[in-house]
Amino acid sequence: TRYRGGKMWEGVYEQRVGELGEMTNLGKGFRERLGESFSLRTAEVVERQGSADTTRKYLLRLWDGRYVECVLIPANVGWDGAVSDRRTLCVSSQVGCAYDCKFCASGLAGFTRNLGAGEIVEQVMAVEGESGERVSNIVFMGMGEPLANLKNVMKAIRILNAPWGVGIGARHMTVSTSGLAPQIEKMAAEPIPFRLAISLHGATDAVRERIMPVNRKYPLERLFQAIEVWRSKRKQKITLEYILIEGVNDGMDQAEMLGKRARSAGAKVNLIPYNTVEGLEWRRPVEAVQERFLETVKAAGAPATLRREKGGDIDAACGQLRLRRENLK
Ligand code: SAH
Question: Residue 328 — pLDDT band, cuts 50, 70, 90?
């Protein structure tokens, strides 16, 4: 039994088998009996957008009929704009989201439930199966707030990282948060050296509060305190994500403040032009403003990149495929 158990792990993760009946490393009779009684995967890809050389987006139906999305970002793009041979999968951690960021599609339909660790890992297996490509990097930037589902997200990271599991290097995984300060501090004690990204989107409380209600609970001072705790335990640089929204957070005062904050936190800045969301009035600033914002952040002393978007045409802003689907019901 122990021997068979080991073979089953090998089948599930190393060979990425989708059905127990396909585990060729087990005896035929045993394999068939298993396949009849149990199923390995519960999520199913029900829709796909995009093509091999662009950002591809997948809609998954979960066992209870709910939907989540994940986005496969091909080699030449990279979520932070760097060119490499990475294949990054952006995974969801919850169905919907409770944090109500004003610009985001995921929170529009409210929060439904947390994903289990298995449902998070399964997104990787399902997309690999569909695309025929191995995923090399994971970012927790799909639907949901990963730090509000910390236990399951950590369990998923352990499985994704484990040599007996999916085998993705810790430094190839990034957890992104809207800024839950106590959970950042708690997570700092985790032994696996995955990366941290903070969705900042405003460099002063006044601006950030307007678009991210979570800022009222954890204002910038509290958030940066938590970042200091994280930094004291980890050697890596964190990333401050900053989406550029026209007339809201794209002023040069914000750019300068952002640069200063990033510099003192030893962080790098990733600027992302806003992706329009159906039903929301926000827009991205024109390119000249994006470039000037970038230069201003850099001039304030922080390393910064500007993502020249690839996925805007297929609603790569997470949550949009699902919204359309749920609205049809
Ligand atoms: N809740 C986590 C992870 C999910 S959001 C977080 O807030 O970090 C992942 C990233 O996508 C965040 O930086 C979020 O602000 C950004 N995002 C959400 N809607 C967007 C849009 N319409 N255009 C561009 N980025 C968006």
Answer: very low
